[in-house]
Design goal:
By secondary structure, the protein is α/β, with parallel strands linked by helices. Helices cover 38% and strands 21% of the residues.
Amino acid sequence: MPKEAMDLKQTILSYDRAVPRYTSYPTAPLFGANFPAEKVVSWIEALPEGSKLSLYVHIPFCPKLCHYCGCFTHITSRYAPVEDYVHILRREISKMGARLGSKTGNRHIVTHLHFGGGSPTMLTAHDFRLLMDTLREFFTFDKNAEIAVEVDPRHMNEDLAQTYGECGVNRISLGVQDFDDKVMEAVNRVQPFDVVYKAVEHLRAAGISEFNLDFIYGLPYQTVRSLTRSMDYALLLKPNRFALYGYAHVPWKKKNMRLIPDEALPDATERFELFKTGAGVLEEAGYKPIGIDHFVKESDDMAIAQNEGHLGRNFQGYTNISPDALIGFGVSAISQYPQGFAQNTTVAHDYQESVLHGDHPPIAKGYEFKGEDLARKEIIEKLMCDLHADLDEIWSRHGHETSKLSVFKTQLKPFLDDGLATLSEDGALTIPEEARPLVRVIASTFDEYLPPVETTQRHSMAV
């Protein structure tokens, strides 16, 4: 490796620290308990007529636990609890639809629907169709709405793929993670290439052509050579998008991660090389980097959104559609409104009781924007999406004195001095391509609630 590249790597690694992934700001750990559901109802009722909605449906079930998983999920080999959950979900959807007035007045338009988990593919074809029928009964969908499902390839079959196609699903996120046998055995997810290949065949036969493959770097026993080989296999599937996520090892939060031996995990330098290698393979294959971990073709809607300046980021990740509100259904699901965030209860019994017998949404936690939140939120989101933010313009547009920005600019000085960011005279902050691994760290400069030096084990390392 040339000395200049080696020096850059060491400089980047010297800044590595535990920071949020910023799928929201403020981040979920700051949501307050016992948040008043009445307040959330007032936010819902205040949505202007014709608002664009993004809907998220959380399916919190898996038949087997992956050791790397950080999601909110329950492990079950029985379908009965999944079937019961579907019926409660339908009730929650219908109550929200009635509250929004969308069944009779069609006041709002759904531009995006995402099924996540857990494993949404645990749903039978019949139950998935029931959920889609309920959603379409109570919500009006834009004719070009994106309907996406997170797919575990091990669960896919011809019947389920056909159901997805008939129900209007037009984007699939396939959870691949890696194709190396040793790596996948270590994380309890044995999933050979031919399993993924057959899943893709079923889905394409059903008329679904938009795919993204999700990979993870930093897994146990993963090497540059093994990851390169896995990504070469993945390219044979010709996906539209790739996601290359960094594994967040947080065993103090997720007990299942304790089953991964620490000595099998790559260190910070090895993680850096893994991401650099994976990104290089994808860029050489014609995929453009988006944000911190996505890669798409130049013709992709996400690339077009970035070029036009309206790429967004929320709890569903990067999105080319910026909704007026994101409404989450299911246990633990998070919603975002113009006034703040609301999270459903994570307790199954409480969720059921609230949906079946309560007068309000099953809210347990929430956060109402205040002070400089919205300005900071926009700056962080712009950096996470575009590696660029017009600090002065954003700050003043939100009604704040730009003199306050001098504090941030002082905090940014080390990054500026080391060539990891540039700041123009008119307040435009830009992170160069080579400093992409530090976007989260630089964005954290604008996080009012994160200590200057992270002292808790709340987040994962950035690089």
